[in-house]
Amino acid sequence: MAVQAPSVSQPALAGRMQRISVSATAAVVIEAERLRGEGAELVDFGAGEPDFPTPAHIKQAAVEALRQDFTRYTATGGIAPLKDAICRRHAALCGTSYQRGEVLVTLGGKHALFNSISALVDHGDEVILPSPYWVSFYDQITYAGGRPVVVATDEERGFTLTPEMIEKAVTPRTRVILLNSPSNPSGAVFAPALFRAVLELCRDRGLWLISDECYLQFIYEGAPYSVGAEPGARERVIIAGSLSKTYAMTGWRLGYALAPKPVIEAMLKLQSHSTSNPVSFVQKAAIAALEGPQDCVTAMLNEYRRRRDLIIAGLRSIPGLCCGEPAGAFYAYPNIQALLRPGLDSPLIFSQRLLREAGVVTVPGEAFGTRSHLRFSYATSRQNIERGLQRMHEFCAKLS
Ligand SMILES: Cc1ncc(COP(=O)(O)O)c(C=O)c1O
To answer: How many A from CA of 246 to the centre of ligand 1?
Structure first.
């Protein structure tokens, strides 16, 4: 039988590439860039990253490391003083007692998640994933050959879950339960009781719990909580953490995983054949971030709280739009169902028209597995929030 050669214009790609798609958040960024290129002046609620500069003492530590020629390969899983600093900061924040051998330093929290999912999920394995979920969870699971089993939550229950909802989704193929609190995109913060129940379920059924703590320090009431502090958690839990949001360091690419030693070793093996070590001088800056003054984090959190109050009040004043109050992170996730109509019948179309006709960048709920919502990142100035709300009002008024 003749075998058809792949055409030059369409090279044959590995089958696994068909299991993932371009992130919808990236698609919004591309469209917004195109419009900006044409001279449009946009109000951007799309980007999920702090608009603050990285604090000066962190930048200074990177400069100092460069001056001292700290520019070579380091240990693949990160330098020991950084691992210790991660353990110490996590212990101070959440009362955990992780040790150096239970830490892997990665190139961002996303990389920690990628390594953990790759290390734990086999072909056909199921991963329980509450929706709305952060875009990359879904694709990282399918890329590994796993099957996301989505458990839907809604604003009526504040986008949180009961242990029963998770338990019902468990099958003999379940391997991992993946929780993200505070959540991107809903801003929900899950109660410690939920984590304890899930942990017990994991222990009973031999499952893993991956807990994404990327927004750990951005909660508006109470102290940060980590399931890693629960007795016996360290044998069943993989924590993915990040300095990206906490210290306004998105571009520096520094995250970490906290996990049982055998899991760390598996992830390290993968990291040694892919990225190798996190950037040498960034690791020094990360030590300065974790060990230095923390008032920069408090200042950012306080500003996010002011922005949250502003945007939630503004969104709620738009007739037909309903919006819960996020307890953490920096996203509003209003329900726009009442504003949808023929010709404007999905968040995706709504978001596209809002961008083209009003110059407001949002991310449609489809990206997060829901069909009635838009995500607004309020990691932008209060002035921008006010301008964006004004445009939203005008756009929505024209619909009715
Ligand atoms: C829920 C969640 N987890 C992880 C990440 C990864 O962040 P980074 O790779 O920059 O650490 C993000 C970034 O947006 C996120 O929203």
So the answer is: 11
